[in-house]
Amino acid sequence: MNILAIESSCDETAAAVVRDGREVLSNVIASQVKEHIIYGGVVPEIASRMHAQAISGVTAKALEDAGMTLDDIDCIGVTYAPGLIGALLVGVNFAKGLAYASGKPLVPVHHLRSHVAANYISSSLEPPFLCLIVSGGHTHIAAVEDYTHFRVIGRTRDDAAGECMDKSARSMGLDYPGGVNLDRVSKDGNSDAYVFPRPRVDGSRYDFSFSGLKTAVLNTVNNAKQKGEEIVIPDLGASCIKTVVNCLTDNTISAAEEFGFKKIALAGGVSANSVLRREMAAICAEKGFELYMPDLSFCGDNAAMVGAQAYYEYLAGNTATPELNAYATKEI
Ligand code: KG4
Ligand code: ZN
C-alpha cells in the first residue's frame, strides 16, 4: 500500500511516500528555521504562511522523487493534532482537497503517534514496547500496547524536555533551535561543573518536571553576569543536559522494570540528543533491555513517520470523514 503523507504541525513543511508502513520511497522537508531564527523561536503566523506557500511544491516533489503520480497512491495520511493550529490547518485542508479530488481515503495521524512510528522505518520493532516520547512540546512515557493503542504512564507536569533545553540554550545566548545547538556546543563540556537539583514530583513516580531546571539555568547565567563572573557555556550546557537525561533515563527504566517491558524505544526531536542516545544505550545494554532509536534523519518532524503510522491507522479502520478538523491539543 502506497501512502502519501503530509506533515505541517510546527515549522517543517513535509511530504513523503511510504510503502506498507516501513519502506520510505521519498521524504521531502522544507525547513523554516531560517525564517524564525531572528525571533528566537517559531512565530505561529509566519509558520502558517510558509506552509501555505511550500505545501504544493513539497508534495509534488515527494511524488516525483518516488517516481509516482497521485494515481499510484492508495491512501493519504495527514497530521491533524497536536501542534500549532494554523500550521496544522494548512496540511489538513490540503490533504482533504487531495483526497476529495482523487477519491482516495484520508487518514488522520496524531503527531506523537507518528514520532513513535519513526522507529518502524528504522527497524523491525513491533508493539508491545515502552516508548519515551520527547519533543519540543511533549514528554511522555507511553506503553505502546498495539500500533493504535497507547497508555500514558508518565508525563511532564510543566515544560517538555525539549522546551527546557531550548529555553536554557536561549539563556546561554545560543540561537534557535536551542536544543540542537546546546547538544553541539556541550560535547566537550564538564557535566559535573554545575550541580542542579533533581525535581521531585509528587504523585506519579513516572512524571517529570523541567520548569525548575530551566529557571535554575537562567538564574545561574544572571547571577554570573551580576558578579562579573565568566560562564563556561559548554560546562553549563553539559550539566543541564545531564540533569534532563538523568530524569528521562531513570523514569523510563523504572517504568520498563515495573510494567515488565523488554523493549524500549525513543521518539521525538529530543531523541536526536547525543547524550540521551549514549546513556540509554549504555543502561539498556547493562540491564538487558532491547533499545530502539529512530535514525537521526527521522527524529525531528518529517512526513515519512506520518506515512508509517498512517498505514497502521488505516489497517485499524481509522479513516477521516470530510469534516476532519485540526486540534492544537489531543491525547495520544
Ligand atoms: O519533535 P520535534 O522536531 O518537534 C516537536 O514536535 O516539538 O522536536 C523539537 C525539539 C526541540 O525542542 C529541539 O530543540 C529538540 O527537539 N532537539 C534536540 C536535539 N535535536 C532536536 N534537543 C536536544 N538535543 C538535540 N540534538
Ligand atoms: Zn514533532
Task: Give the SSE map.
Layout: E1 2-7, E2 12-19, E3 23-31, H1 33-36, H2 44-65, E4 75-81, H3 85-102, E5 106-110, H4 111-122, E6 129-134, E7 139-146, E8 149-155, H5 161-171, H6 178-185, H7 211-227, H8 233-259, E9 263-267, H9 274-287, E10 290-292, H10 304-315
Parallel strand pairs: 1-4, 4-5, 6-9, 9-10
Antiparallel strand pairs: 1-2, 2-3, 6-7, 7-8
Helix pairs in contact: 2-3, 4-10, 5-6, 5-7, 5-8, 8-9
Bound molecules: 5'-O-[(R)-(carboxyoxy)(hydroxy)phosphoryl]adenosine and zinc ion.
CATH topology of the largest domain: Nucleotidyltransferase, domain 5
Mean pLDDT, rounded to whole units? 97
CATH arch. level architecture of the largest domain: 2-Layer Sandwich
Order of helices and strands: EEEHHEHEHEEEHHHHEHEH
State the shape. globular
The molecules bound to the chains, other than polymers, are: 5'-O-[(R)-(carboxyoxy)(hydroxy)phosphoryl]adenosine, zinc ion
Q: Low-confidence spans: pLDDT under 50, at least 5 residues?
A: none
User: What is the CATH homologous superfamily assignment of the largest domain?
Assistant: ATPase, nucleotide binding domain
Please outline the major beta sheet: 5 strands, mixed
C-alpha end-to-end distance: 25 Å
Helix content: 40-55%
Got a strand count?
10
Q: Structurally, how many domains make up the residues?
A: 2
Strand order of the largest sheet: 3-2-1-4-5
| Estimated share of beta-strand residues | 15-25%
Number of helical stretches of at least 4 residues: 10
- Class by alpha and beta content: alpha/beta
Radius of gyration: 20 Å
- What's the CATH C level of the largest domain? Alpha Beta
